[in-house]
Amino acid sequence: MAPRVPRLVAGPSGRQMFGSLSQIRGDTTGFLADVHREFGDVAQFPVPIPAISLNNPADVDYVLRTNAKNYTKNTVQYGSLKLVTGDGLLTSDGAIWRAHRRALQPAFHRTMQSLTLDAIRDSYDHFAEVWRSEGAIEISEAMQHLTLEVVGRSLFGTSLSGNADAIAQATLKALKVVVARARTPFALPSVVPTPNNLRLRSAINTLDDAVAELLGAPSAHPDAFITLLREAHEADPVRFNLNAVRDEIVTFIVAGHETVASALTWTLQLLNEHSPAYGLVQEEARSGVDVTELEAIPLARAAFAEALRLYPPAWLITRESIHTDEIGDLAIPEGTLIIMSPYLLHRGDNWDNAEGFDLNRFADDNSQVARADYLPFGLGSRMCIGRDMALVEGPVLLASLLRDFDVVPTNNWSDVGMTHSVTLHPTRRMEAKLLPAR
Ligand code: HEM
Q1: What is the value of pTM for the model shown?
Q2: Distance (Å, rounded) from C-alpha 340 to C-alpha 318?
Q3: What pLDDT was estimated at residue 417?
Q4: Class for domain 14-436, per CATH?
Q5: Would you say 77 and 318 are in contact if contact means Cβ atoms under 8 Å apart?
Q6: C-alpha to C-alpha distance for 230 and 139, rounded to whole angstroms
Q7: Model confidence over 262-274: pLDDT tens digits?
Q8: Which atom of ligand 1 approaches the CA of 379 most closely?
Q9: Which of 9, 75, 331, 422 could form a disulfide with 318 if both were Cys (CB 3.0 to 4.6 A apart)?
Q10: Is 11 in the pocket of ligand 1 (CB under 6 A)?
Q11: Does the C-beta of 252 come closer than 6 Å to ligand 1?
C-alpha cells in the first residue's frame, strides 16, 4: 500500500478536487485562486505526494531564492517539458545545470551585445514588408513568427524564415502534448505509440531536423550563440556532447520565442481594451524618436511590463524539495511538490487596483526589479537567462509596430478567453487589419 501522505496544512478534499476537474484543466489559475480564497496563502492538495501551493511573496522568495539549493525542477511540469528540451538549461538541475549556465551565460551575453538589436530590427523589417503586402494578420500567429525570426537571427545568425512556420507549428504541437501529459495522472511512457505520443514524436523530429540544419549551416557570425555552442562542444566534447548542444538549441528556440510572443499578444489585447493608453503608446512611437532606443520609448516599456504582470507567460512555477525544510511555520517533508503562480502573485494584495491595466504603474521602470510579487522572469539563480533580451525585444517590436501601422481588430478582442498552455494564450483568434500609418 502506498504510504499515507501527511496532512501538512488545510486544502481542498479529494471530493472537491474531483468536482473541479474540468476547472483544473480549463481554468487552472481560477481554480488556484479559489483554493487560496478558501484556504489562505498556503494550501495542500490531496494527491499521492505531499503537494502544496504557496501564494505569499515571502514564502515564494524563500523557495526560489533564500533556500533555492533545496528545491529542484524534478516535477511533472518540467519532467514533461524535458521530453522536448532534454537536459537544456530550462529543465536540467544540479551539476549539469550549473556547468551549462556558467558556460552559456557569457556566450549569451556576447550574442546579446553584438547581434540582438540588429536581429530585432531586421526581423521586424522583414515581417513589416510581409504585413504591408498581406494587410491582415492573426496576432498570436504573427507574433510567434516574428519572435521566432528574432531568435533565429540573433542566436543562430540565420533567418529561420524558410522553416519558421514548421518550427513554430512543431513547437506549439510539442508544447500542447507536454501540457496534456502534465495534466494526465497516468500518462503512458513516451515510447508507447498513443496518438499524443506520435504527435510529440513528429514534432520533436521537426525540431531535431531544424537543429541539424542549423548545426550543419555554414559558420554563422562569430558572436552568434550557435558559434559559441560549437566552440564549447569542441573545447569539451564530453560535457558538451552533441546531445547537450541539441538540447540547448531546442531549449532556446522553445523558451526564447513563445514567451515573448505571448507577452506581445496580451500587450496588444490590453492596449486595444484601453484606447487612451493605446493612443499614448502610439503617439510616443510616432514622435520621431528612434524606437530601438529603450530610453525613448518608456510608455511601450510600461505597457509591456504591465502585460507581463497581468498575463505572465510563465504562469506556473513548480519545485520539489530535496530535504525536509521549514517554510514559515510549515514543516516540509522531502519530496514535496511546491506550486507557485506568478499570475496570482501579480494580482495579489500588494498591488493597488491589481486587476486593472495601468500604464503608469511601471512608468518609473521598476519592471527591471525582480521581486516575489513581480516575477515574470522567475527569481534567484534559476531566473530567466533571456530576461534582458525580452525586455528589449518586447517594447522595441511593440513600438515599431505601432509606429508603422494602425492595428484595427476585425473580430471581437474583448472576450478572447485564456488558455493555460506552457504559456498563456488567448483562446480565440485575434484578427486584425494592419493599415499603414498616415
Ligand atoms: C517575455 C519573455 C520571457 C518570459 C516571461 C520568460 C520567463 C522565464 C521564467 C519564469 C523562467 C524561470 C522558470 C523557473 O524558475 O522555473 C525562465 C527561464 C529561462 N528562460 Fe525565459 N522568459 C522569457 C524570454 C526568454 C528568452 C528570450 C530566452 C532566450 C532567448 C529565454 C530562455 C530561458 C532559459 C534558457 C531559461 C532557463 C534558465 C536557467 O534555469 O538557467 N527566455 N524564463
Answers
A1: 0.94
A2: 6
A3: 95
A4: mainly alpha
A5: yes
A6: 35
A7: 999 999 999 999 9
A8: 15
A9: 75
A10: no
A11: yes
